[in-house]
Amino acid sequence: MNRDRQRLPIPRTRMRLATLAAGAVMLALAAAACGGSSGGSRAAGGSSSAGGSSSGGSASVTNVKLGYVPYADDAALFLAQQDGIFRKHGLNVSFVPQATPVAIASSMQSGQEQFGFITTPVLINLNSKGIPVKCVSSVDGAQPTNPADDGTVLVAAKNSQITSIKDLAGKNIGIVQLTSLNSLATDVLAKRAGINPASIHQITMPFPQMPAALSQGRIQAAIIVSPFANTAIAEGARVIDHPNAVLFPGGTVTCLDALGSYISAHPKVVEGFHAAMNEAIAYAKNHQSAAKAALTTYMNLTPQAAQKQILSTDWNPALSAASIGQIETYMKEFGWISSAPPASSMIWPPAG
Q1: What pTM does this model have?
Q2: Which CATH number fits the domain that encloses residue 162?
């Protein structure tokens, strides 16, 4: 497990950090949009360019790249790759690990990746800025309704004396990305607990760095996902809450998305991707041990550790416009956005 011991960056205000991050992404997206096609990037193994086709057999296969944030809830996605489900649906998918959904969105707009992992707040924010991206499939299903089934946890450091959300006032909490799902959850939970969300210092860092940061006292709490949560808990961190299950039960909090322009230009590829993920999720639901076993390859876990992971899903691949709308409401409440397109317009295929 990564034990990055870099010094914690000097904290800045959350709004300034969020503005700088969003601004950098928007500039990258705008530049890419003006620059036209990137010409595609090479798929693994030296095959034809991303978005193109090759004929290694009797059937044509399209090469695409997918950006993802590595964590346990990618199990169905890993299974689709490992068991050849993508290839069955005419796709040769190359996986590209990234630290955050914003980085993935930038790579997609520049033409480096055709599909990507995104959290619902990032999806909404991009669309509110006039950058059309749509969920084309679930990652693994909807958010579970039982907190015990949720692998995303709010933990407090071993010696922090934090026992509730109220105790987070004035503390540093590790968040993988500002203006995204876990950042929004922190704000909502803080307001519900009667404390000012701005009193909590949100510090951005990748999930793999959070256990060490907690142990070293650089942060006093974190919203962290499996399998990194397992490491933090083993080192003494205590579970305080299950933000996603508490705030968004049965909801769509993540998805695999594509740009609207790519969807329009490559409808059959998108259909194949959607069908492959639905098949993988259905198979994983009935073969959860096999899905967890895929984590040994893609997350470098031991077989024993892989089987202990909590997969945060109800295995329902349907995308929920209602939950996206709820998250839009929260984002407006905290001033993240002033307006956004209808939630249903951010889902492919459209209802009906």
Answers
A1: 0.83
A2: 3.40.190.10
